[in-house]
Write a sequence for this structure.
């Protein structure tokens, strides 16, 4: 059942604040196409106020020194946030489903991960205390050296709409664990649950200014944050095109950035597989979250000897995917997040057709749904490597298929992309899997699966998919600066 969307303001300095220019952005429910509320639209003026609040939260010797608080103190707040998220899990999942169209059971799983991520970084925050002043072994006895890890400072966190609260957690939890003060800028297409995170922060009395949440348009609020001289780092997740803009703005101030960008990840299926299992991972890898996953394995590279049977079963399984209102029990595929994105996905499909590819399955709006931004799960064959559908990220439920005969050919096809986020290999031959894991150009290689992701394991890309790693210890290091202290003794 749908629930009302809370009306919220910007979250600055521990309080709700109306945007200075009083602008708001409508929220469109992607399932019904109705306007169901609005979010505040921050402008450069609000970014200014939020940056000042964040800097005050870090100010030394004024009783507000978040950065100098022990990791144990920060951990207490992260655990309190996790507990509140758990308490509100079911409501938050519904809000996220209504806002961005993902099936409710997926959103519920995301909320558990959000809480888990805050708990995980609470542990790491505590562990950080013990790692301070780590001695460095020097060749000269006259000197003694040690290392302090300090928070980078005020960080701007800019995130996309596909996992709104989870992407926020991946950045906010390690940033706060490290002792940074943060300004979070969610996507204008899905900000509702991020604003509820603000309410959670109020409820747990997070010190004012430690986390500020500014909803608003990318080119306005996002760009102001990225180019602000008193923001010490930008951690960005989103498209490669926006990543380039952010890097360009940051370069002018030698501001560090970490970029988690787009992908066009392959799944290579060898001839020795259990076909049903491989079909299952192929569908999951490409159609989970309506295909709106940066690391979606959207290029299937299947051995020629099993291709016909594999595609046959892929189509049969696709016929059984329930496409419906994402709040409905058993829904497996909800709508695309927005009209713009929906039209973009359909355009990709029509261009593939006009370039000579075959739509083996799907390719259109499902007939039984008259409203909402729904696209059928789509399987495209007769694909050439020069085609747009093979080369560009669709960010929708669209799978492009090519066949191969030799292992070398499979590797060449898999690496035939500017991107390098994920890659999956399905084969019973584990030596072969190991060989491929070494040569596939990706930040993550999945063997006999696709997409599993753990807080403990690093996530990130190479090539056009960006640089820097989130999650695990690497995620914490993103927000720490190393200071080396040397004594003459
Ligand atoms: P997007 O680049 O359009 O927007 C991402 C964020 O950047 C939003 O908050 C947006 O408001 C902001 N933004 C837009 N223009 C900006 C500008 N000029 N300056 C500063 N900020 C700006 O991406 P999207 O459509 O929200 O998300 C989809 C993309 O995100 C896909 O390419 C997908 O692959 C990528 N993504 C990557 C990962 C990853 O971990 N690598 C995860 C999820 C999504």
């Amino acid at each position: 059942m749908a629930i009302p969307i809370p009306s919220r303001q910007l979250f600055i300095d521990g309080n709700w604040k109306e945007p200075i220019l009083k602008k708001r952005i409508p929220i469109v429910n992607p399932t019904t196409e109705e306007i169901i509320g609005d979010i505040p639209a921050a402008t450069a003026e609000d970014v200014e106020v939020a940056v000042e609040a964040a800097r005050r939260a870090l100010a030394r010797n004024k009783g507000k020194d978040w950065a100098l608080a022990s990791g144990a103190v920060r951990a207490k707040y992260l655990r309190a946030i996790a507990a509140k998220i758990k308490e509100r899990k079911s409501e938050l999942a519904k809000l996220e489903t209504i806002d961005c169209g993902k099936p409710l059971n997926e959103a519920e799983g995301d909320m558990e991960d959000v809480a888990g991520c805050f708990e995980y970084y609470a542990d790491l925050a505590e562990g950080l205390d013990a790692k301070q002043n780590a001695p460095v072994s020097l060749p000269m006895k006259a000197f003694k050296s040690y290392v302090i890890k300090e928070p980078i400072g005020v960080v701007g966190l800019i995130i996309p709409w596909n996992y709104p609260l989870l992407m926020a957690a991946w950045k906010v939890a390690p940033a706060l664990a490290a002792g940074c003060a943060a300004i979070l800028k969610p996507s204008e297409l899905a900000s509702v649950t991020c604003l509820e995170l603000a309410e959670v922060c109020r409820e747990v009395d997070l010190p004012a200014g430690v986390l500020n949440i500014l909803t608003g348009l990318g080119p306005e609020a996002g760009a102001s944050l990225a180019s602000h001289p008193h923001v010490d780092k930008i951690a960005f997740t989103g498209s490669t095109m926006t990543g380039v803009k952010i890097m360009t703005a940051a370069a002018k101030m030698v501001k560090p950035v970490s970029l988690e960008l787009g992908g066009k990840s392959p799944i290579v299926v060898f001839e020795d597989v259990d076909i049903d299992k491989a079909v299952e991972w192929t569908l999951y890898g490409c159609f989970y979250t309506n295909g709106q996953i940066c690391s979606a394995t959207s290029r299937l590279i299947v051995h020629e000897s099993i291709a016909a049977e594999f595609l046959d079963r892929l189509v049969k399984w696709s016929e059984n995917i329930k496409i419906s209102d994402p709040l409905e029990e058993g829904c497996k595929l909800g709508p695309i997040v927005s009209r713009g994105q929906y039209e973009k996905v359909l355009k990709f499909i029509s261009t593939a057709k006009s370039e000579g590819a075959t739509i083996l399955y799907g390719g259109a709006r499902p007939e039984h749904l008259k409203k909402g931004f729904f696209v059928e799960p789509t399987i495209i064959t007769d694909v050439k490597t020069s085609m747009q559908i093979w080369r560009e990220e669709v960010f929708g439920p669209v799978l492009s298929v090519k066949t191969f005969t030799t292992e070398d050919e499979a590797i060449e096809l898999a690496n035939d992309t500017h991107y390098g986020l994920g890659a999956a290999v399905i084969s019973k031959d584990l030596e072969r899997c190991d060989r491929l894991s070494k040569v596939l150009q990706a930040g993550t290689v999945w063997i006999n699966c696709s997409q599993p992701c753990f807080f403990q394991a690093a996530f990130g890309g190479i090539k056009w998919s960006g640089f820097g790693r989130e999650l695990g210890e690497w995620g914490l290091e993103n927000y720490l600066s190393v200071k080396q202290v040397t004594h003459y003794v």
